[in-house]
Amino acid sequence: MLVKGRKVAGRGEAVAAHYAFGPLEDDAIIKHRLLTRTTTTRGEPPLKKLQKKFTSFVLEIEKDADNYSDCERLSKAFLQELTTFELPLLKSKAVVDANLREKENFNELKDDINRQILQAQADIEDLKKQLEESKIERQHKEECEAIRRLIAMQPPRSETQKIITELEKEIAALEAENTAGSRTLELRKKQFVLLLHVVDELQNTIEEEQKSLVEEMRLATEEHKNGMEDASWGSEAMAVD
To answer: How far is CA 16 from CA 1, 7, 22, in A?
Structure first.
């Protein structure tokens, strides 16, 4: 027998209900009662009534007295009670069959839902990939747009080519000027070397001339000295005479 749970309110909270039997035991008890038809809301249980009818019929048959009419009456009562007992069983069987068909439909629906879920997951993955590709494509478009704006900010190609031509002319002029300056510098180097050589020769010539002049002055001095000596000696000789 089931014992109903009791809820006790305390500070606005409900206490969970407690039962004497668990869910599995309840299912087993209900199944047994439905099969044996021992539970009824009013009167005697159908199975007990059927058992009494059958027992009365068997006892009446076993009597040796001439009771054909009683046996026939009890037989009809038993068959009627059997029919009455069988009718709910047929209804229960129909309900069970309907439940089985509903279960099969539910399983098919469940499988269909699972397939839809798997398909939805696959579609989500595809959409994620498409989203990533779209992001990358959008990024590339933004980069291309930024490059296009930078290119648009630059002057036209004709002006750029004109500037390049002018710069090339300036570079050529600078290279020519550099070449001329290099040649001039090389010429100045050669002239400077020649100048140094001339100065060196001039210095040598001056030194030689100075030496020659010194030597001539020395010789002139010696000649003058010798002449004076000769004059002095002649005077002395005349005085002796």
So the answer is: 20, 7, 14
Quote helix, strand, coil % in the chain, to nearest 5: 85, 0, 15
* Token duo for residue 128: 């994620």
First to last CA, the chain: 201
Residues in the chain: 241
Name which of 53, 61, 60 is nearest 82 in CA terms. 53
Cα of 151 vs its chain's centroid, Å? 32
C-alpha span between 80 and 239 (Å, rounded): 218
Q: Is the pTM of this model over 0.90?
A: no
**pLDDT tens-digit readout, 131-189:** 999 999 999 999 999 998 888 888 788 888 888 899 999 999 999 989 988 889 888 88
Per-residue pLDDT tens digits for 8-50: 444 444 444 455 556 667 667 766 665 555 555 456 677 777 7
